[in-house]
Write a structure and sequence with these properties.
Blueprint (H helix, E strand, L loop, with lengths): L2 H38 L9 H16 L2 H7 L1 H8 L5 H25 L3 H9 L4 H12 L1 H22 L6 H11 L4 H30 L2
Helix pairs in contact: 1-5, 1-8, 1-9, 2-5, 4-5, 5-8, 6-7, 8-9, 8-10, 9-10
């Protein structure tokens, strides 16, 4: 394998990590609060707002129901307006983030659903405000589940980023399509798959470690 090809593989790997990193961070910052809102605005919850809950739930469901490849194409005008282009790693990060936010939100909501209602009742009995219950009871108690949710999201983003390469998104998916599939080079295709598998294993192992560490606290 030539030095130029090794450089291409290395750059594609960095591009994939960049896309996953950027979209993962933004999706966390937006998706975790959205998931908490979905939980606390339910009927008979601490901030019960049935109408707001229904609206948030509907938007989240719509976001989750659109296949990623269709989402990428559908929001091209928005992507171009936001980053100035519809191709490349920055452009691919936009649909990756939009696809990940509702995914994170539902997983976080599911983690909170597993908590015992008695925790909230005990906090309310002690005079805690809704904000204190969210920050000092719900999120700390669901920390392990939230970390697991974020780990699943990052692993999903790795596969989505590879899919983005099929339509000019860059990264390992783009490398595998252009040099592996189009040029009939099975070695490049295999290397691309192996790197993606290593990434997934690495992110999953890191997530499992953080969950174990949080459970000991």
């Amino acid at each position: 394998m030539s030095g130029a090809m090794i450089n291409l593989i290395w750059q594609a790997t960095l591009d994939t990590l960049y896309m996953v990193g950027i979209s993962g961070v933004i999706a966390t910052l937006l998706g975790v609060p959205l998931g908490v809102l979905l939980y606390v605005t339910r009927p008979r919850q601490i901030l019960a707002m049935p109408v707001a809950h229904q609206a948030l739930s509907m938007v989240t469901n719509i976001g989750r129901s659109i296949p990623f490849i269709i989402l990428m194409v559908a929001i091209i005008p928005f992507t171009r307006m936001l980053v100035g282009t519809s191709i490349g790693i920055n452009a691919a990060s936009v649909p990756l983030t939009i696809a990940a936010v509702p995914f994170v939100a539902r997983l976080v909501e599911g983690s909170l659903n597993e908590l015992s209602p008695g925790l909230i009742e005990s906090a309310q009995a002690m005079g805690a405000t809704p904000w204190q219950i969210i920050c000092k009871v719900l999120i700390p108690e669901a920390r392990g589940g939230i970390i697991t949710a974020l780990t699943v999201t990052v692993v999903t983003l790795v596969s989505y980023s590879a899919m983005a390469g099929a339509v000019g998104g860059g990264g390992l998916g783009d490398l595998g399509i252009r040099y592996g599939y189009n040029r009939f080079n099975p070695t490049i295709m295999l290397i691309t798959v192996v790197i993606l598998v290593i990434m997934v294993q690495g992110f999953q192992s890191l997530g499992d470690y953080l969950v174990r560490k949080s459970d000991r606290k």
